[in-house]
Amino acid sequence: MINQPLLQDAARGDRRAQFQLYKRCFSVLMSVCVRYRRSEEDAAAMVNEGFLKIINNLPKYSPDTPFEAWIRRIMINTLIDDFRKNRKVNELIENQDFTNHQNHDGLVDFNTADLNFEAGQLEAMIRLLPPMSQKVFNLFAIDGYGHLEIAELLGISEGTSKWHLSFSRQRLREMMIQAGVGYLAKEKK
User: Fold this and answer.
1) Are residues 136 and 72 in the same domain?
2) Are 1 and 9 in contact (CB under 8 A)?
3) Consecutive 10-residue runs of the chain (189 residues): their mean pLDDT?
4) Which residues contact 162 (CB under 8 A, 6 or more apart)?
5) Which residue range(s) make up the domain with 120?
6) For the chain, percent helix, then strand, then coil, each to nearest 5?
7) Which residues of 61-73 are buried (b: 16+ CB within 10 A; e: fewer)?
8) What is the pLDDT of residue 96?
9) Cα dist. 148→77, 87, 102 in Å?
10) Considering only CA atoms, which of 91, 72, 84 is closest in space to residue 145?
11) Which of 26, 54, 85 is the last residue of a domain?
12) What is the pLDDT of residue 88?
């Protein structure tokens, strides 16, 4: 639990308080970063960048807002800012196959799939999505943003955001089928 005296000391520049706050926030911030970065090293670097913004903005923090929600929002905004800053470089490096994937006649029963599937497996599959699709999926499905917000944050159209979400869901469905998660429904007659 993070208490007000710790936050006040950290906001005043007390290095020990800032270090204690960092240790207490690390797992929350890292859980956000690993959803948006392909490597743990990149995620850890982003945690540090996000935490610096948290420390710089601590005087603006209002105790009326849950602290964890506040730091998650700052971390997500830091990740999006980094994405925008490096967008041109990422577009040059990114080479993804957007060809149509084989269509399956069955459906995955997600209730059964849940019983046989661990969160770690899903996180690994999400990391295999193309970077932009991964960001849109995370922002929409996990962080609760709407398509209009996502479009504004990532500098894309609302329709493009919807396409990336649809594409992500389809690819995740295909990966789950390939991994043998759940079962295929009987063929439609």
Assistant:
1) no
2) no
3) 89 94 95 87 93 95 92 93 72 42 43 55 85 90 89 90 93 85 42
4) 147
5) 97-178
6) 70, 0, 30
7) beeeeebeebbbe
8) 42
9) 16, 19, 30
10) 72
11) 85
12) 56
Contact 96, 132 (CB under 8 A): no
Location of structure tokens 């955001």: 161
User: Is residue 184 included in any domain, yes or no?
Assistant: no
Q: What are 5's two structure tokens?
A: 């005296």
pLDDT at residue 182, rounded to an integer: 52
Question: Of 156, 104, 157, 101, whose CA–CA distance to 129 is shortest?
Answer: 101
Give pLDDT, residue 117. Answer: 56
pLDDT at 183: 45
Q: Looking at the structure, tell me whether residues 118 and 165 fall in a common domain.
A: yes
In this predicted structure, what is the pLDDT of residue 171?
A: 92
8 vs 159: CA distance, rounded Å = 43
Asked, for residue 33, whether it belongs to a domain, the answer is yes
CATH number at residue 127: 1.10.10.10
The pLDDT assigned to 5 comes to 92
172 shares its domain with 109: yes
Which of 185, 174, 183 minimizes the C-alpha distance to 115? 183
